[in-house]
Amino acid sequence: MTVEITSHEELRELLGVPSARAANKDRTRLHQRDRDWLGASPFCLVATAGADGSCDVSPKGDPAGFALVLDDTTIALPERPGNRRADGYRNILDNPHIGLVFLIPGRTDTLRINGRARLVRDAPWFDEMVVKGHRPVLAVVVEIEQIFYHCAKALLRSALWQPETWQPEALPSRARLIKEVEAPVESLEDLEQHYGPEYVTKIYT
């Protein structure tokens, strides 16, 4: 039998009360250490929700420091070429609330930022976001409402950064996955060529 949790009180009774440090650790402005973390992070997860409540989480990555600090309460993330679905960007236009998790390879703690986002198609600071000669076509500007560090337990449990636990061959290649799941009409040979060794040269075009 499935037993659901249906109230805040029930949830709190089950999980218990957070420590004072955990409950009060969130801030609204960047500390210098937050700036240092953003400067060292090459990857983040971006969570958004549409007007109807439907959610999206999108990975964003670039050279370390790609999240540009504009001031103590504002950061910006550049857009890079992708699949053009723009799920998260469409969500932002309807609902500006956003959640970010910044990772540093090898670190098991993470930096979380929640706030309100808007899309900007140009600004003088776009010049600071040029990578390999490519200027972003837009950026997500995030007004910080909450920022805090998240403990290491999830990444420790998952052994995320321990190479001896990695199993990249547990599933078929990217080309084979697409052939089986998304594009059965395209030939496997064409897909393997597209996602082959030359694919890395296309990530900014």
Automatic annotation (TrEMBL):
<dbReference type="InterPro" id="IPR011576">
    <property type="entry name" value="Pyridox_Oxase_N"/>
</dbReference>
<protein>
    <submittedName>
        <fullName>Pyridoxamine 5'-phosphate oxidase family protein</fullName>
    </submittedName>
</protein>
<feature type="domain" description="Pyridoxamine 5'-phosphate oxidase N-terminal">
    <location>
        <begin position="33"/>
        <end position="151"/>
    </location>
</feature>
<dbReference type="Pfam" id="PF01243">
    <property type="entry name" value="PNPOx_N"/>
</dbReference>
<dbReference type="InterPro" id="IPR012349">
    <property type="entry name" value="Split_barrel_FMN-bd"/>
</dbReference>
<dbReference type="InterPro" id="IPR024029">
    <property type="entry name" value="Pyridox_Oxase_FMN-dep"/>
</dbReference>
